[in-house]
Queue: 2 jobs
Job 1
Amino acid sequence: MADIKTIGVLTSGGDAPGMNAAIRAVVRTGLAKGLKVKGILKGYNGLLNEEIIDMNATSVSDTIDRGGTILYTARCLEFIDPEYQNRGADICRKYGIDGLVVIGGDGSFKGAQKLSALGINTIGVPGTIDLDIACTDYTIGFDTAINTAMRAIDRIRDTSTSHERCSIIEVMGRNAGHIALWCGIANGAEDILLPGKYDFNEERIINSIIENKKRGKKHHIIVNAEGIGHSTSMAKRIEEATGVETRATILGHMQRGGSPTCKDRVYASMMGSYATQLLCEGKSNRVVAYHGGEFVDFDIDEALAMTKDVDEHMYEVSKLLCR
Ligand code: ADP
Ligand code: F6P
């Protein structure tokens, strides 16, 4: 075991269901290894403002089933500036924090990378509903988000069928289409519009709505990724062109809330614990991942250089099923 006595944990960027399970795992694993654990509130903002609390086993009691993050989160634009990164590293030293777990997305990992370079052993844990971290097949919160969105779209489908309408449902994902693809398949959508895949051929969608209506279809569900956006204006154009009443629903932040699924609780626990073990081994500048069916870790620099799109095979299958 490396000479680590105190570790810190923070959540950064958009919150994601399962972050609490990861925090709990960091705290409990750290305590089990004889470490002191500090919680840093509100991401890098809280670090710079020294909003740092002591955590014990009971600090994380009754949290595994709760959505959001008990440490709160924030986006901290200043942290991109080396002056503030230096200040963050100095504050870690001031509080005796010799190891830090950063739970967040790629942006948060860039902050972690900088702290590592400044001598604070730092490990990233992938927490984002978007699944847009290239080195890992799993990110904390994605499973809950797709289940939340899927249930919401089921409800929209009911009313869409009753009124014989077309519904465009916009799901989150920033520039990535993972949530849209999974929900598109799970909700039996007629069209799935994904960044980097959608050809913006609205004429084709319009013709297919008209054809489907003739075949007796009672609804037309379009799952639209946030990265494509413009659902409301698209609905207006489709209604005008087809004569079929069309409504747009933007699911928004409800996709980020709620009690985490079993998978999110368990995988987040595994990842939080894994990150703490890495700190105990004296590792730094690593990111925990689920890759090829097991929990592994990558160098943050390498992880940030990787890219990924939606699963190509899933996308091809989805095209066979949409009609
Ligand atoms: P996510 O972590 O979900 O990708 P953001 O991209 O909003 O979310 O990043 C979260 C935070 O990470 C930012 O508000 C900022 O504090 C920090 N961050 C982002 N990019 C950098 C960077 N290049 N250098 C240092 N810190 C960064
Ligand atoms: O990264 C998670 C996410 O929910 C994205 O899907 C979305 O684009 C963004 O965060 C929304 O951010 P905010 O909560 O700042 O509106």
Job 2
Amino acid sequence: MKKILVIGAGGQIGSELVIALRNKFSKEQVIASDVKEICPDIIQDGPYQQLDILNREAVREFVISNNITDVYLLAALLSATAEKHPDFAWKLNMEGLFTILDLAKEGHLKQIFWPSSIAVFGPTTPNVNTPQYTIMEPSTVYGISKQAGERWCEYYNNKFNVDVRSIRYPGLISYTSLPGGGTTDYAVDIFYKAKRDGKFDCFLSENTELPMMYMADAIRATIELMEAPSENITIRSAYNLSGCSFTPKGLAAKIKKIIPAFEITYTPDFRQQIADSWPKSIDDSFARKDWNWEEEFTTDKIVEIMLNNVNPALLTT
Ligand code: NAD
Ligand code: AKB
């Protein structure tokens, strides 16, 4: 029987992934864990363990003594925060991955999910319909850590037969918890500010096109990838995955159709350079071929769902 540990479960992806995994298996089979002392309300319906991924011995002890079979390792610093704390970002994003890969190498785990990102690409990458295999020269601390992580995942699979699977997520859009310090966060924040203030000052310029995806699609993709037969998985670094692409200006126009008085202004900051180094759109034909990936949520659908569901009370600023 599977026993799943989600590390970094209190974040934007983890909180929804835990719910989806508990619905699929059982509450008892899915342990949420995070460095946060208090379990977030949204995942309080099942087991929770405070765990710091950087405490290698504590993580090893917990995995082994609880007979954990699968780990979803989500703890990381995202692109914008990582630029502010490069040393710590490198430590957090890499050391935790080795702890989990080593547990699998020693036979303590059956399956690992570790997310990569479109940040693995860089300014020299062809940025329209970015292929799976292409130039990868990431120019951010975060992108370098994801690129290195991908190489290590593939290495552990090749050398030690570790069943590790990964997706290069685009910017993810959701309303149940706030995003955690990325460059694509504007595409979540805009809905909260549209609803609360009727206006939004964007930290990216109006024509900055980036690949995005609604969270429900990302969660389904993750579970479908993890369930796919091993022999179908031809990529052990990370799969390109595509949902939709839009610019701040295009997104604002769609919001304006629902909230006509909505106004957007642009004050690009350091995150502009990060966004400029990333793809505008992604070719995910390998995910489609290997495990039948198909996205569901268009930009129009995302706008409608977000405006109906965001709760501005969650905002702290
Ligand atoms: P998030 O910042 O919302 O959540 C990360 C969680 O990790 C937080 O709850 C945090 O408390 C926890 N954490 C931090 N340090 C920890 C530690 N030492 N030990 C245990 N937990 C710790 O991030 P997210 O958006 O949920 O992203 C999860 C993963 O997906 C990351 O690897 C990220 O790079 C990747 N990803 C996210 C997106 C996105 O748009 N959200 C896109 C691409 C890739
Ligand atoms: C970020 O902006 O850092 C993340 C990502 C695309 O990896 N959302």
